[in-house]
Amino acid sequence: MPLPPRLFAGDVELGKKDDDHKQGVKSPLGIIWQQRRIPHGPHRRSIKRLALGILTLVALYYFFKNMPTDLKPPRSRPNYGPPSTGAVPVIPSRKQPPSSQADTHLEKGKHSEKVVKDFNGPIKFYKLAASLHAVANTRGSELVNRNVLFAAASLKSAATLLPIACEMAQKKRNYVHFVLMGRDEIAMDILRNVNGITKECNIIFHDARPDFGPRSSEFRMEISTGAGFNHVNNFVHPQATLIDGSGEEEPFFLKGLKSRAVGLGRTVIELPPDVEQNMMWLTLLDSASLSAWHKASIDIVIHAQPSASGSLMRLLDSLKKADYFSSAPPRLTIELPNKIDEPTKQYLTRFKWPHNADDDFGSLLTLHHRIPQYGLTPEENSIRFLEAFWPADPFTSHVLVLSPQTELSPLFYHYLKYVLLEYRHSISKTGMYRNLLGISLDLPSTYLNDSATFVPPTSNETNAPPTPFLWQAPNSNAALYFGEKWVELHDFVANSLTSQHKLPTPKTLNEKLVSKTYPSWLEHVLRLIRCRGYWMLYPGLEKTDSIASLHNELYHPPEEYREELKEEKSPESGEFTADVQKHLSLKHTEAPLISKPLLNILPSGGDLPRVSQMPLLTWDGQEINANEVGEYATNYTYIFRHEIGGCDVSLPSKVVFETSAQDLFCLNDTPGMIGKPEREEDQMDPPALEHPPAEGG
User: Fold this and answer.
1) In whole angstroms, what is the distance from residue 551 CA to residue 314 CA?
2) Which of 28, 53, 135, 375 has its CA 20 to 30 A from that of 586?
3) CA dihedral in degrees (104, 107, 110, 112; nearest 10)?
4) Does residue 314 contact residue 551 with C-beta atoms inside 8 Å?
5) Phi/psi of residue 691, each to 5°?
6) Element counts in the chain: helices (H) and strands (E)
7) What is the 3-state secondary structure (H, E, C) of 476-509?
8) What strands, in cross-sheet order, belong to the sheet with 478-481?
9) Do 440 and 537 touch, CB atoms closer than 8 A?
10) Cα(324)–Cα(327) distance, rounded to whole angstroms?
């Protein structure tokens, strides 16, 4: 009987071993058992497989039975591909309570998760290029343009800025852009709809949020903010960037944007929390005015009177209560008399300026004390007062002169800043702004000579509201004088005082035109105004409103005129005061100080008229036009140069240099100064916008 086939018949070695085996005869029982076992019984390998399977099932059973259930999900590996590839790490989507921290606190009894913000990979702006390439019509490639940018990272800040941006865009003086640079992944369309921004707002939107914003570290978001602003600047060149300064904004955004803006030389304006209540006037400014937001600096000069501590303390209290919003507080200089009364000493010991002084500004208070114990002459008083201020930059540094009898509105600095930016830095300013000597906060009740009651001019329309006007009359109660005009005034007074000592008394111009209720230096300012054809800008307010109120119940005449007014001694108090019956300027009615927003107080909804559209008055109240002002100035200058300047009538006129009054005097002539005057006044209005603002993207 043949042998059954082997299990590993293909194995050569096994086959060889079989050949080597000796063929023998087996017993019948062994042959029968072998035949029955091989075809029908299970193989030995199958038995091993079965045993291994049973062991595996037992192991899996115990593994799943004892598997831990408190493990956190594994951390996803970062992917550097674009979001559209589907490889973005999945962030658990769960309802979060309002919190500025990265932790996600769940309800009690549930597991807590933490969104780790430590991603520092390369920064990509996938949605920024399209909007930047679509703004060519705004002339963003030019360094000087009409673009204004609003920027935010926090959604709360965006909700604050968007209504202001919409209001500004609707004025159509600027092209208004809005850029979002935060972590939130909200769609731009949803952001617009939630804040009520429609296409009529004409805001141009830019999405400068980086990839992986929710997972990015603070450092990456700071770098992203600076890089995004740099991209926007390359295509838009914003003249000013407005951000939220209420404290709701992200720290990385403020740090990154400010540092990059400083490097690029761009203006950043932080808006205070009450911007929608008191500062909507900035929406009326154009890009050029906004770009000069931080350029202008203001110094306040107060000439304190002897024995008038109550008036001085009232004025200083009103300065402390004033709102200076996001502007640098002005420097304060107080000229003290020789004898300082005790209440004034105690008050100044406790007085701090700025009121909320911090490490950024420190103390900005300067006190000057006069040494002479005797009364000042008009000449000495003029010198002393004018020397209290000298501008570091004549074209950006200005001085606010305040009388101790004055009390200021809390919003006086709003008005001053608004008017200063509009008429000094606006694109629409005309050549007539060069004749603007300063801005008055006070509306006088009489003329300078105190001869009659002054009635402000109005427009020709029936029932027209009050209007701002130009008047060739200086003001010493509350007025801002521009730096370059103050420098010219110094030169003018210096030469005038020299002329008084060298030349005989003038025949025509010897008359004093300013009342002795005003300080003596005002007479010099009036003469300069008449020589140059300058004028002051006065506010147009209702009789029930005032920016600066004058209190005359504690009035004291100027020191230089107190001896001349001795006959007006008050028998009750023993104080030398002016007689109210003889001086109309002391009988005016005090108007309440404004506390409402400027747009509710100023005529035409706060929209300031052009200088060329305002009424213009001579110093004695005659209404004239700009051409007539030039004729009056030419005639007065001819007489002044001869009688006070010491110039020969036969000599030709000198060249007029800005910030200098040398052309009016011939006391120290130099040959190079002789020639024809060269002063060009461009009075043409600038062209309107060539392209209407683009609709919001």
Assistant:
1) 10
2) 375
3) 20
4) yes
5) -125, 130
6) 18, 19
7) CCEEEECHHHHHHHHHHHHHHHHHHHHCCCCCCC
8) 365-369, 331-336, 297-303, 397-402, 478-481, 436-440, 535-538, 469-471, 616-617, 623-624
9) yes
10) 6
DSSP-H helix ranges across 394-482: 412-425
Model confidence at 585, pLDDT cuts 50, 70, 90, reads low
Using CA atoms, how far residue 289 sits from 173, 293, 369, in Å, is 11, 7, 38
User: How distant is the alpha carbon of residue 398 from its chain centre?
Assistant: 18
Per-residue b or e along 51-87, where b marks 16 or more CB atoms closer than 10 Å to that residue's CB: eeeeeeeeeeeeeeeeeeeeeeeeeeeeeeeeeeeee
pLDDT digits (tens, 9 = 90+) for 72-92: 555 444 444 444 333 333 333
Q: Which is it for strands 616-617 and 535-538: parallel, antiparallel or unpaired?
A: unpaired
The pLDDT of residue 23 is above 60: no
What pLDDT shows up at residue 691? 39
Token pair recorded at residue 574: 């023993």
Burial of 656 (0-12, 13-18, 19+ CB in 10 A): middle
Radius of gyration of the chain (CA): 42
HSE at residue 175, side-chain half, CA atoms within 13 A, is 24
> Of 306, 488, 322, which is closest to residue 395 (Cα–Cα)?
488
User: What pLDDT was estimated at residue 338?
Assistant: 87
CB atoms within 10 A of CB 134: 14
Most confident of 20-29, 39-48, 346-355, 567-576: 346-355
Residues paired with 179 in a beta bridge: 151, 206
Mean pLDDT of the chain: 82
Q: Which of 173, 681, 692, 255 is nearest to 421 (CA)?
A: 173
DSSP 377: P
Burial 168-196 (b: 16+ CB within 10 A, else e): bbeeebbbbbbbbbbbeeeebeebbeebe
The Cα–Cα gap between 379 and 374 comes to: 14
Note the pLDDT tens digit of each residue in 494-520.
999 999 888 888 888 888 899 988 999
**Residues counted in the chain:** 697
- Is the full-model pTM beyond 0.90? no
Take residue 42 and report the two structure tokens written for it: 């299970």
Mean pLDDT of 132-147: 94
Beta-sheet pairing, 616-617 with 623-624: antiparallel
CA dist., res. 391 & res. 369, Å (int): 21
pLDDT of amino acid 568:
55
CB atoms inside a 10 Å sphere around CB 127: 15
Whole-angstrom distance, CA of residue 666 vs CA of residue 662: 8
Q: Which residues contact 363 (CB under 8 A, 6 or more apart)?
A: 352, 353, 357
Spell out the SS3 assignment of 125-163.
Answer: CCCCHHHHCCCHHHCCCCCCCCEEEEEECCHHHHHHHHH
State how beta strands 365-369 and 331-336 pair: parallel
Q: Within 13 Å, how many C-alpha atoms sit on residue 83's CB side?
A: 12
Cβ neighbours, 10 Å, residue 7: 11
Q: To which residue do tokens 């980086």 refer?
A: 210
> φ, ψ for residue 452 (rounded to 5)?
-155, 160
Contact 531, 642 (CB under 8 A): no
Question: Could you tell me if 251 and 219 are in contact, meaning their C-beta atoms sit under 8 angstroms apart?
Answer: no
Torsion of CA 228, 234, 235, 236, to 10 degrees: 90
